[in-house]
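From the shared-data thread, chain only:
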Amino acid sequence: MICPAPFLFAQHLSPLAHEPDWSDLEKFQQTISHDEFVRLLNDVYAPGDAAKQFIEIGADSAGIVTTTGTDRFILRFANGAEKSPPRFWKPASGLKKSHKPLDGVNIALDPGHLGGRWAKMEERWFQFGADTKPVAEGDMTLRVAKLLAPKLLALGADVSFVRRTTSPATTLRPVDMRDAAIAELQREGVTLTREDYAGSSDPLKFNSITWQSELLFYRTAEIRKRARIVNRALQPDLVLCLHFNAEAWGDEKNPTFVDRNHMHVLVNGCYAASELALDDIRHDMLVKLLTRCYDTELPASESVANFLAGATGLPPYEYTRANARHVGDNPYVWARNLLANRLYRCPVVYIEPYVMNSKPVWERVQLGDYEGEKMVGGEWRKSIYREYADAVADGLAAYYKSTRGTFEKVPK
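Structure, as tokens:
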């Protein structure tokens, strides 16, 4: 399947994006005050005046640059009482008390990456010697999701899966991405393109049409398809994006251990001016802001981070580049603009614990999943998958319990 040319080549859009429909922001008229809009824009979504040249804020409204670049969409602020923003998800603060903290909460599990036969293409696979278990993030996140689901169900949640297998959600494949890959290389200013590349450690792979086609398949087309599943079919109250972290490991066949092991949790935010110059990203950011996803993402992420930190004993990861920034008071929680947490039009808790190519984590992966505890590094530990799943379930339960309130079930 070859996508139509406007879908591929529009220079004011991010890869594989469609033109945004600015009229759908009409439903947000008078749903947010001037001060709240400014706070969220400046403190969370576009720090450092990143949106200054695209959003002009007045006393009663904001003028937003639209697709044409010459027209403005006028968003009117609430004057007095704010109207409720339209959204398909329920905030925890609106839920009734229940004896189960997640009663009536629809949670979608999004195990990151694909795994299976796609793991090497995704470059989320490595192996130390032929007689060891390979580390494949997509398989590992799916295992965590399948362990987590019954725990959430027991807490009262309705649970859905964005993916249940290692098969892609998208019907597109790398071969369908060729024209888009050439266009993306041109946009990036790559003049010496190559047709193919010699493995993940090839330093010239970034100039390769094949590598760029694969990247667009598994990182862009796949996530965009998952977003359609989340927004149109599942419509959850919260998405849990489950990942494992890693440092650069070099050659997948001869990888390198690192000394660092850490964790962090991400909420959507920290858009750069160069990102907001793209029409679809600017539009998507405004939807996240106006639906107040951050009001749920931050406290839910902080609670999950607290329980994961307690269970794993890992220190917080520290970003050193400007593509992320601390939000809130929790050292583990950062704001960052990722495709999934931008496109999913509901709160997203994006979880990145463990460094897969640190020796302690690799050793735990070699142990596989197991019930109970085993001696690991001189202490008794659950399997890495159950430790992950238990902590996330406990963190969500604590957040919803504190926000909605619970009562003890009256025995019959």
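The two ends are 59 Å apart (CA to CA).
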